[in-house]
Amino acid sequence: MRRVSVFGATGSIGQNTLDLIKRAPDAYQVVALSGAGNITQLAQDAQDLNAEIALTARDDLYDDLKSALAGTGIEVAAGQVALNDAACRPADWVMSAIIGAAGLQPGLLALQNGADLALANKESMVTAGRLMRETAQNAGRKILPVDSEHSAVFQALLGEDLSAVERVIITASGGAFLGWPIEKLADVTPQQAATHPNWDMGTRITIDSASMFNKALEVIEAKEFFDFRPSQIEVLIHPQSMIHALVGFTDGALMAHIGPPDMRHAIGFALHYPNRAPLPVERLDLRKIGQFTFQDPDEVRHPALRLARTVMETGGLSGAVFNAAKEIALDGFLGRQIGFLDMADVVETVMDRLLGCADINAAQTLDNVLAMDHLARQEARSVIARKPI
Ligand code: NAD
Ligand code: MG
């Protein structure tokens, strides 16, 4: 039996992961399942899968989780330190599906302690790509991409010579507001932005899709994951969300990865890697789909893509600044402190302030990444507090 843990088990990626694990219960020994606020779901899954330990990131919910699992023999714990400890438990495969920079440390610890890491948490690569890769290399473990675009690139590159890659095209659905006039975007609500045309995802990534911050994170993630040059990475709007990415080679061939918008494909690929196993995803009928369409992204509407290029060119700790400022700007939008278009302004202002500082080129150690993340959050909060709306 393979020992597996799922961090962020109650979220969209986490639940899709558990769906696959539950279909083959005899194949897996579930070590740790973690969540935050949804204690009922977490306790239910921990019991269904007979997990060794269930954890909530929230200290204040320890008693609720404890009583929900009373008498089951399942260990219970709460808080960041407990999450980190659980990530150190021996496991063969760990899913990193916490949202935000909070997912970085458990992922690093899982790698250091001998697990292969299925990485949905793109923020890990954006904030600390080099540290993640070095940690995996030193531990002799693999990082398997779960973001659909990166899983697609990974699959297109199997058996290929990386030096023969000319370009990579990451597709984007365009999000909730594709085709809307820019004037209307200033007043959109979090509820409107949290509706995705194709994918069923967590609220935060869905809003990031509408603002293109998700694609901006993914472009940086692609550079860090595969060591591409920034100039090799293109973004193309593809509203059907069926071609997840394309890799172009020096002989002119373009390899596309096509599949339904169902994260269980990328999760299942990472779960079964290096094998392919049957997965419960829809088989596409291209006759019914009829056509795929493409268009260029508009960087005036979506400055996030331009900011991502600055991050790729700056390197160092600039990804930590970008991501942390984005997380706080998103909090501000969700809390109705700033408007939809203000999110990019906040991130750009924080980048203007911090990307020139001497520490931006400091070594990518965990301490340095966390310190820069903390500083960028403070800056972003002060920018939002002073922003007239
Ligand atoms: P989600 O909001 O649905 O779930 C997030 C999970 O993290 C939940 O289990 C929640 O309890 C937990 N969590 C939240 N805050 C936490 C904290 N501070 N500490 C510890 N745990 C915390 O998110 P999601 O959509 O499943 O996305 C998870 C990750 O996967 C993100 O990094 C996202 O960018 C990435 N991703 C998601 C999708 C998707 O289809 N949902 C696709 C590609 C990549
Ligand atoms: Mg993606």
Would you write up a description of this structure?
With 389 residues, the protein is α/β, with parallel strands linked by helices. The protein is 46% helix and 15% strand. A seven-stranded parallel sheet has the order 4-3-2-1-5-6-7, with helices on both faces. A four-stranded mixed sheet has the order 9-8-10-11, with helices on one face. The mean pLDDT is 97. It binds nicotinamide-adenine-dinucleotide and magnesium ion (MG). Residues 147-149, 218 line the site of magnesium ion (MG).
Give the arrangement of secondary structure elements.
Elements (H helix, E strand, L loop, with lengths): L1 E6 L4 H11 L5 E8 L3 H10 L4 E4 L5 H7 L6 E4 L1 H8 L5 E4 L7 H9 L3 E4 L2 H18 L3 E3 L2 H10 L7 E8 L9 H4 L4 H4 L9 H9 L1 H14 L6 E5 L5 E7 L4 E5 L5 H9 L13 H4 L14 H11 L3 H17 L7 H13 L11 H20 L4
Parallel strand pairs: 1-2, 1-5, 2-3, 3-4, 5-6, 6-7, 8-9
Antiparallel strand pairs: 8-10, 10-11
Helix pairs in contact: 4-5, 5-6, 6-11, 6-15, 11-14, 15-16, 15-17, 16-17
Magnesium ion binds next to α7.
- Give a quick account of the main beta sheet: strands, pairing sense, barrel closure: 7 strands, parallel
Mean pLDDT over all positions: 97
Derived from helix and strand composition plus strand pairing, the structural class reads: alpha/beta
What fraction of residues sit in β-strands?
5-15%
CATH homologous superfamily descriptor of the largest domain: RNA polymerase sigma factor, region 2, helix turn helix motif
List the bound ligands: nicotinamide-adenine-dinucleotide, magnesium ion
- What is the CATH third-level topology name of the largest domain? Rna Polymerase Sigma Factor, Chain: A
What is the name of the CATH class of the largest domain?
Mainly Alpha
